[in-house]
Design goal:
The protein is α/β, with parallel strands linked by helices. The protein has 21 helices and 13 strands. The chain folds into two domains: 179 residues, D-Maltodextrin-Binding Protein, domain 2; 188 residues, 3-Layer(aba) Sandwich (D-Maltodextrin-Binding Protein, domain 2), CATH 3.40.190.10. The radius of gyration is 23 Å and the shape is globular. Helix content is 53%, strand content 12%.
Length: 410
Amino acid sequence: MTSIKAFLTATTVLAAATAVQAADLEVTHWWTSGGEAAAVAEFAKAFDATGNKWVDGAIAGGGNTARPIMISRITGGDPMGATQFNHGRQAEELVEAGLMRDLTDLAEQEGWRDIVKPASLLESCTLDGKIYCVPVNIHSWEWLWLSNKAFEDAGVPVPQNWDEFVAAAPALEKAGKVPLAVGGQPWQIHGVFRVLLISLAGADIYQKVYGEKDAEVAAGPEVAKIFKAADDARKMAAKSNVQDWNQATNLVITDQAGGQIMGDWAQGEFQVAGEVAGQDYTCLPALGVGQALETGGDAFYFPLLDDPEQAKAQEDLARVMLDPKVQVAFNLKKGSVPIRGDVDVNAANDCMKKGLTLLAEGQAVPSQEQLMSQDSINQINDLMAEFFSTPSMTAEEAQERFADIVGSAT
């Protein structure tokens, strides 16, 4: 009888210990395109292997749609287990309100400061010396994706830089192609402008405008050249009648459009479609002329939870996301670059290797989310959307309004 009681007691203790180690954890994110879904599945698979269960909370519509929903749930007392935000200041107020979990002890145990490269990404997770998020990738916006066949159909060589692309636009139009595919969402249009600014005007001008909020530079001649280039871009995109970014990418994949300015996450869509870099499509980092890439990307925050099982599962997920093998598997499908400086990226395709080369040379600038508040970014988003959709608005008028926003930005 004693042995039976001992066995039952031991079994109960083991069951309790196992229960503490496994839990269902809802993870919210806005990764819903084909390439994004394939990438996030790598996180889910690795997390499930720990004995926990990934409960997918994908919210369609991108960050601008998903982010307010995520924030509302957290502030409204219905937090998820983990949630995606971009690197930077998007979760700052939630952290200040005491709604996010402090991960400092875990980060020190796991040596995050030694493995996260560049260090600025972990600094973006840090407030008052405490770490509140897990950076999972490096994304850069400064890419021009080109359909090789579209240019073949138009009878012109595949461009090697922005000026050649603009010069090829008439031939593309004559061949029935949309020269530049751009989705109708404001964040995409602002992205086009920002890529033009960083690539054509340079990292110093970008830092003065977005980092130092220098209205005089924003109103000056260097930025005037960028608004002229943006005027070229809006003319080239005039017949790009799609809304979502991956729909615009699909126009390039199906050779209906010559090119698209979009972040390296577009690479995941080409991969899902079976396209081969250098053969079916061409990628030009920094528009083929610049030297700098933004080091933005994604991070996961963990709202404070009362349930000890879920709290333990949060730690398991944080460890999984920074596991070297998981980092490679996720980022190869996402089109982004791993945040660990010690992983094997031999499997990277030509486009990722181009990005890695620029980053290795130190040609990196902070993302807009690291430099400006979301409110200021949204004001520029709206301005750029209005500029692209209003042919009567001159580049000079748009620049004047842009300088005003920059001067009052936070």
